[in-house]
Design goal:
By secondary structure, the chain is an all-alpha fold. Helices cover 69% and strands 0% of the residues. The longest helix has 16 residues, at 144-159.
Length: 327
């Protein structure tokens, strides 16, 4: 008899937003994303919801998604959400797109000279001035969407060791964005493990002559020599990188997994422990080589936990084949 008197409860966006913030504060990131997406569906014009969702994406290392949201906010509400310019700059810095990071950090400081993130923006600019290799990147703003698509697609296949698929994509990426530093090194890396070791060596040696301080060049050659049974040659490049402490998590990861892959597990384990897990959850290499380093340092339980988490997160992995047993 009460059927017709039921009043459905349809939460406003604020309800979902509050639930999302609570989940975020408890570091339940997947739940936070779920609630915040519901908030945006309920109130799509509320820029605050999009900003908060972008912060969650940044926390878990999905910088592309974060910037897509923030770019929309800037496009529609730029003057009212000045902090977005700094957040975008920070995400670009993590992605290695330093010219764009610099541009947005400078824009933030121009628009808000005494803003909440003034100190962070100034520090970011100072750190980028110290980075000479990536300073040559100079992308036009309208090219970013295409670049991001290529980067995401290439990353997907490299993490799955699908070298034959990644190589033509990297070839296209280098043609379209010839000054994109990391792409050529990823190309050489994929070449080596796809079987063309001679070409991989030739490319990296050539690039290292042009830029002797290249982190990518030294890490790749360390791995190439080690995999080829030339430990002494690998050690020469290890000596270069073992005293390098980059500011960006993905570069820190590159050093950590290079040390793990070349037998320096104690040093690798120390490096992995210092990484921000929340920013690297999308990287198979983080879990795989962290678990290998932990295992060889006697932290067997830690290794098993890491590998179990990796298999849960990346369903293409074989949970029955632990990486330290497959070496």
């Amino acid at each position: 008899m009460y059927k017709d008197k039921v009043i459905p409860f349809i939460p406003e966006g604020d309800f979902y937003f509050t639930k999302g913030v609570e989940a975020f504060q408890k570091r339940k990131f997947e739940l936070a994303i779920k609630w915040l997406k519901k908030a945006i569906e309920q109130t799509p014009k509320e820029a605050l919801y999009q900003c908060q969702l972008s912060i969650v994406y940044t926390e878990i290392g999905q910088f592309h998604k974060a910037n897509q949201l923030l770019t929309e906010v800037v496009s529609e509400h730029g003057e009212h959400y000045i902090d977005c310019y700094y957040l975008i700059a920070n995400n670009y810095a993590h992605l290695g797109l330093f010219q764009d990071a610099k541009r947005f950090a400078e824009t933030y400081l121009e628009k808000n000279v005494d803003g909440e993130f003034k100190e962070e923006a100034e520090t970011l600019l100072d750190l980028m001035d110290l980075d000479e290799e990536e300073d040559d990147d100079d992308w036009a703003y309208e090219e970013e969407d295409e670049l991001l698509i290529y980067q995401e697609t290439v990353f997907y296949h490299l993490e799955r060791e699908e070298w034959d698929i990644a190589l033509p994509l990297l070839d296209e990426l280098m043609t379209l964005f010839p000054t994109h530093v990391s792409a050529k090194h990823e190309y050489a890396f994929a070449k080596f493990f796809d079987g063309d070791q001679g070409e991989a060596f030739r490319l990296e040696k050539e690039w290292l002559e042009e830029n002797p301080q290249s982190l990518y060049g030294h890490t790749n050659l360390a791995i190439f020599y080690y995999e080829s049974g030339q430990q002494e040659m690998a050690d020469e490049h290890i000596e270069v990188i073992r005293n390098v402490y980059p500011i960006h998590e993905q570069q820190k990861l590159r050093i950590a997994f290079t040390l793990a892959r070349t037998g320096y597990c104690a040093e690798a384990y120390s490096r992995f422990r210092a990484l921000s897990k929340s920013q690297l959850q999308g990287h198979v290499s983080y879990y795989k080589w962290y678990s290998v380093a932990a295992y060889h340092c006697g932290e067997v339980d830690k290794a098993n936990v890491l590998w179990a988490e990796a298999c849960k997160r990346f369903t293409f992995l074989d949970k029955n084949v632990k990486p330290w047993n497959a070496e």
